[in-house]
Amino acid sequence: MDGAGGVQKSPDDDGATSWTTQSTAGAAPREKERWEWGSAGAVLIACLMTLPFLVFLFGGQARASVFWLQSSGVTMGGGVSKASHQAISTTSASVATNDADELLGGLLTAGFDRDSCRSRYQSSQYYKHSPYAPSSYLQHKLREYEARHRKCAPGTPLYAMSTERLRSGRRGTEAMECNYLVWLPFEGLGNRMLSLLSTFVYALLTGRVVLVHSPRAAADFAGLFCEPFPNTTWVLPPDFPVANLSRLGWSPDQAYRNLVAKKKLSSDPAKVTGDDVPPYVFVNVAHERRFVDRLFFCGNDQVVLGRVNWLLVYSDLYFVPSLYAVPAFRAELRRLFPAKESVAHLLARYLFHPSNSVWGMVTRYYHSYLAQATRRVGVQIRMFRFASVAVDDMYRQILACSKQEHVLPEIDGGGDGEARLRTGNLSRTSAGAGGSTAILIASLYADYYERIRWRYYEHAARGGERIGVFQPSHEERQATGKRAHDQRALAEIYLLSFSDELVTSGMSTFGYVSSSLAGLRPAMLLPAHGHKVPKTPCVRAVSMEPCNLTPPRAACKGADAVDKDGEDDIARHVKACEDERTGIKLCLGIEEVSPLTGKRQATKAAANIKRWSSAANATVVVLIMVVPPLLFLLSGRLESKKDVLLGGLLVPGFDEQMCASRYQAAYYRKNMTRQPSPYLIKRLRQQEALQRRCGPGTVPYTRASERLKSGQTDVDDVDGCSYLVLISYRGLGNRMLAIASVFLYALLTNRVLLVDRGYGNTLPDLFCEPFPGTTWALPLDFPLDRFRELGEDAPESYGNVVVNRSGSVAGLRFVYLHLDHAASPANRLVYCDDHRQFLHRVQWAVIRTDQYMAPGLFFNPAYQAELDRLFPRKDSVFYLLSRYLLHPTNGIWGMVTRFYNSYLRNADERLGIQIRVFDGDKPLQHVLDQILACTAQERLLPRVVSAEGVAPRLPSAAGARSKVVLVTGLSSWYHDNIREMYWKSATADGEVVSLFQPSHEEHQQWYRNDHDKKAAAEIYLLSLTDRIVTTAWSTFGYVGYAMGGLRPYLMFKPENLTAPNPPCTRAMSMEPCSHGAPAFECTRKEIDTIINTGVLLPHVRACEDIPWGLKLTDPA
């Protein structure tokens, strides 16, 4: 063999792996820190500096090493490679076509204008598998066809001559220099691509010229594909003489079957005279068997049709397998494609080059979402009406197929992955030692994407692998012929074709095209005939060729009907399809080497390998053996030391297995922007001692509970233990603000903080215990009945005690502090209480608040000196207290770290956008307008330019700057629209922008465990961003930016459903806003006189988003 030809390619060792397959090295989760150097570091530098020179010196011989490593099953990742079930060749599975072979082994021709069609020469750098090179004969026939097309195309004299004859209706058999095939589009994009490819194969076999009928040329093909042939066009001009091509139907009068049936044309070549041959013939080779021209696949009929100048081909199928049955075509097909399964693979890459607008969508999505992964898996899902099942059933079929074929990563189920989460050196773990897999979902519906993404969000992947799940679009229904829909569909076909492995739906032409372009034998999901999921979920395709789903049963006569010599050949190469037993497809013959072994390829490649010198072999072996241990030994030095105790804010000694986030969070966050004061650290240790001495399970707590239960009062300073019980109230953001500020109040008043577990006992599932050796959770047997129902009118409410009881607590077991955002001025007097009048005589205080109380406490003269010592920087209160108190449980922390490592970690910059709509759950255009206006005003997102006709360029070797946008909100509509904007259009500065949204619950659900877990994870993820845009009035947003130590860009609350102008402003501090702070001066306590309390203290100012709200700032 000549090394070409539909036989498997030799390993492509002419260059390094394409840059598109390289992933960014995993550094620490946040910023790259300084290295600590020693003598070992110098050794490593010497090794790394020596390696390039060795590569240069041993140049060509290095190729032998590549082959040796592949064929022996050795991988640099430290494992043994398994046999490739997906790639057509075991040795080619890891070899991507490099940019030196942009002509795909001679398949393409040079000389096209690169800017007019970027995909033609760039696509080679994205394909992961190129198992077959074109035969020299195929290359010859393609160049011959290109010359014929230039000579006969529209605009040439020969075309004018043929169309004039057609227009005149003149019959005759005189030879025309140019004969034509007019392809008529039909059905969806996958069908059209396969039928056009089949029509082109027929043109190669018969010496005809293919012209594409495009009733809306600009909208159909010019908007999807480039011209495939140099210096000419394949688009049929609109003035073609045959009228109404799009409306000819299934069986017009000029259909071949009708002409023969009505004896207007004989199927016997010997009986055809000159006057019998019509100017054109319509040929139906579509799926509808009633109207198919079966005789089209008979040899004698091909002789007759060969005398017709114009053939109009109407098809929605891949009919190449049926052409193999024609004796006159079989030998030619064998020469063109020695490997029978390479037909669609090679010709799809030859014919179909996405236009610049589509290619821009492809490359932008690839670099934004897929390029960083070490492995890419495509999952294409098509649900047919005749084989429909419930979404959950299809989802289970996908998982069963994946398990059977080892496609999708397995999940840990709380075993090894959870152990890795809880223990060990986090910076190594987060570096993604297990590699990364990007799963691309292509489907009309989002259901499967949501389920698969949630699977890897909720659970760790086995081996610590980072998993990203992506879906470019979900159109909900097929909209064939609509330009935007077809552009998205074509972009997704090509994105699937860049996969390392594929799962496709049986009988789906969309999947057939994707796997053929990819050069992969996919795992094919079997159709659910009878609406029942098949027992065998999928099968591995025996060939990457598409299936002809409804091949015609030709009743050929004479020699055509026997063709004894070809029966064995057909039996070897044409098989029943795996997904449709009545369909047929081309396969390798039994005498040909199976691509899954690659033995012939290995033998041939081995014959060309030059033996290394002993010195070169020894050097490389030494390097391979020495460098990995060095990296392992030095890994501790290369990892930065993180202050996991946050400057003394936290204490050591907690069981990390019980709460991984407490000490691991430091590796994900920026360095502390505010350090805890020594006095705060001291007081925290004192509070911890108080919580241990008086908390649940202790003798003092037991006595205090008995007194509360029995109604005993006047228990001033009994055991030195007083209690503050926080009622869980409202949404998670409100509760987190309340916890932090009520803890501050407990700190100021020397009370033990006990937090209500909430409806559904949600507290333990959300946060770890913050105090060592004790619990802050209010015991389930707390003796105060129905305490969650307390309100302002309760006799025990602070307002009633002050106003109606003149401060007397006689006969009261407890005092209730009602500090809801709408609390009465009398109840807000608690902000001014010095805790000396009567509160100190009450052992139990119960508080309800949905607010951030801290700004109000600063107005109390009794607390001001203490607060100054605790927080010299007044804008650090929530920042420090939240990092001390609020540590997510392992389940939530696993979600946070998995999402961060899978989607956010590798970006140069992370932007958070938190969206809260207070005008119902319906998406609102003016809110989207406001988001875009704010990000444009503050230059947070890059400007986009129209991609229409613009030639997308490959990123530089160094890579473009990347920005990842984390969107949180109840609706996915805002995320989808912004993502679509950056998918359809290029950024003005070349920045790569990707958007992610962890969940979209559609409606807020308080005290729903799963809902609160997702909300908590998203709050923490927001806190890990570099810059953040939040919604006015939103406590969710307040917590997200304050925990992260970020000064947000606050979007003003819209009025009258109109985006405000300006859309947003930069916050003056990172502190949350208090919506219910006191509006009176504490020294006077004139509750009926409202004053501007913001002028009383320089570090308490009116909030940007709520004029009557207050927030802490740092005047310095």
TrEMBL record:
Keyword Lipoprotein included in the entry's annotation: no
Key words of the record: Cell wall biogenesis/degradation, Glycoprotein, Glycosyltransferase, Golgi apparatus, Membrane, Transferase, Transmembrane, Transmembrane helix
Transmembrane segments: 37-58
Xref: Pfam families: XG_FTase
Location of this chain's protein in the cell: Golgi apparatus
Residue segments, region Disordered: 1-32
Protein name: Fucosyltransferase
Organism: Paspalum notatum var. saurae
